Amino acid sequence: VPQHVWRINLDTPEEAHQNLSFGAADRWWEQTDLTKLILASNKLQCLSDDVKLLPALTVLDVHDNQLTSLPSALGQLENLQKLDVSHNKLKSIPEELMQLSHLKSLLLHHNELSHLPDGFGQLVNLEELDLSNNHLTDIPTSFALLINLVRLNLACNELKNLPADISAMKSLRQLDCTKNYLETVPSKLATMASLEQLYLRKNKLRSLPEFPSCKLLKELHAGENQIEILNAENLKHLNSLSVLELRDNKIKSVPDEITLLQKLERLDLANNDISRLPYTLGNLPQLKFLALEGNPLRTIRRDLLQVSTEAL
Description:
The protein has four helices and twelve strands; from the N terminus they run H-H-E-E-E-E-E-E-E-E-E-H-E-E-E-H. The chain is mostly loops. The chain is elongated and about 90 Å long. InterPro entries: Leu-rich_rpt (IPR001611), Leu-rich_rpt_typical-subtyp (IPR003591), LRR_dom_sf (IPR032675), LRR_domain-containing (IPR050216), LRR_R13L4/SHOC2-like (IPR055414).
């Protein structure tokens, strides 16, 4: 990055010296210091500590470069609200980053992170955090302090479990844990009252948790796991659910209580081991999409299968 970029707030430009309306000692513009700096899609291998000369920055975007580390001076950008360092080669995050108390959006996806600083919970104003496509094996328990977080993406990592403490994220609406190694989901997750979208696809789950408090949950994606049983207990509190995706599991039966999901619009049960369906499925008034291919269904009358769509 050319040096004059970092010094843009400090140095008077050439044209100011030739223009009598600028005093040499004055700042060359009166309105504001630089607030947004976008250096994305270059070939940067490092960022200078001189980034601290831009204290008014609210947005710093360096995604799609070749950064292997971040300068500790980033911690001095106390007005920073959005930091995008995705699609780089970062192996760690400097502790100083935890000082950015006004940060609302932190995008770290597609890097080479294997661990996170313990102090992550200090980023109390964070609303969006994307950690997908890294090598994370665990999540700091201090995540519980991120009570303003709305979207958390942990997809495509190496997580074997989630800390029960993340249930303290009372504002969380979207949680994506796709493609990890989760064998269970902490039962406390079910107390997250604001949760609207939960992605658990491509893990090693054998059962679904019960969701007693997830009254707002609209989408539950749990395909490509090893779920064998779908219990009535899993379903009975999900009054707002509109999408239930359970394809590519080992489910043998669907409970009659599926009719409690009165707002269900999409039900995907493809590629399971279901031989019969409850006739009560007919009592789902909003259902628009029902996928059942790849199941050994034996109870649909042959004459139904041979008539036209209209007759059906």
